[in-house]
Specification:
This protein is mainly alpha-helical and 326 residues long. It has eleven helices and eight strands. Helix 2 runs antiparallel to helix 3, helix 2 packs across helix 4 and helix 3 crosses helix 4. The longest helix has 20 residues.
Length: 326
Amino acid sequence: MVKTWAEKEMRNLIRLNTAQIPCPEPIMLRSHVLVMSFIGKDDMPAPLLKNAQLSDSKARELYLQIIQYMRRMYQDAKLVHADLSEFNMLYHSGEVYIIDVSQSVEHDHPHALEFLRKDCANINDFFWKYGVAVMTVRELFEFITDPSITSDNLDAYLSKAMEIATQRTEEERSSQDNVDEEVFKRAYIPRTLTEVKNYERDVDVMMKLKEEDMALNVQQDNILYQTVTGLKKDLSGVQKVPALLEKKEDDMESDSEDGGSTDDSDSGCKEEGEPLHPKDQPTDTGMDKKERKKMIKEAQREKRKNKIPKHVKKRKEKTAKMKKGK
C-alpha cells in the first residue's frame, strides 16, 4: 500500500510540475521511497504556511496566488488536491509550494467535486482569519471549474470577483456562510450532462424564473451544474464568456445605449399610442443637456418595458408552427 501511495505521489507531482505549479520536484522512486527536491534555505526547510508570519497585504497576495494554482491544478493537471489546507503548503521566498499530493484525485473521480468544495472551504477559512475579503465557497468553486475563463480574461475575472468580495458586508457574508454555503457544500453536483436526471425540468424552472424577470443570481437557485458543464446560467446554451464578465459587458452596453443618441430615422409613421421620442419633439432651446438626456433615458426605458423577450417570442413562434403542422 505504501509503495502504491509513493508511486501516486510521484505521478501527481510530475503533473503539477508540468502545469507549472510550485511543488517539490520528484527525482527518484525506489520501492516505497520517493526522493524529492529540497525546499528551504541552506539546511533549514521552508515552514508550513500555517506557521508563516504574513502581513495583511501578503496574505491577500497569497490568497490570489493559491486560488490560481487550484484552478491550474483542476484545468491543466486535471487533479483535485483533496486535502488542501495551510498544513499541506510550504512558504518559501514569498511563494507557496503545494505538497502532499498522494491522495489527490483526477477531476472525473466520483467524489472530486466534493473534495474540491472542501479544499475551497479550507483555503477560505485560513485567509479569512487574516482579514482577507475572500470569495464565497461557491464563487471560488465556480472560478476553479469555469471552462469559459481563459488566460485573456482571467485578470479581469479575478478583479471583478475580488471587488464583489470586498463590497460584501459582514452581515451578508455571515448569512451566506451559514445558509447558502452549507447547502452548497452538501449538495450533489453532476459532473457531466449524462448525470443530470431531469434536464427538461431544470430548463423549465430557469425559463419560469426568466419569464418572471427574477434575477438569476448565483446564490439564489438550486441548479448547480451550469458552470462545471460549461452551460449558461439559464441553461439556454454554451457559456462562452464568464457570467461575471458578461454582466459587466451588458452594463457597459446599457450605459452606452442610454447615454448616447440614437440613429433611428424619422421616416415612416408612428404607431398610434406609441410615446413620442424626445428627439422627435420640438427642440426647446431653454432645455439643458441634462434634462434632454434624462428624457431620452426615460423614453428608452419605457420602450424596453413593452419589448417582448426573445425567448418568449421564440416560444410563441414554435407553438404557432406546431399548431399549423397539426
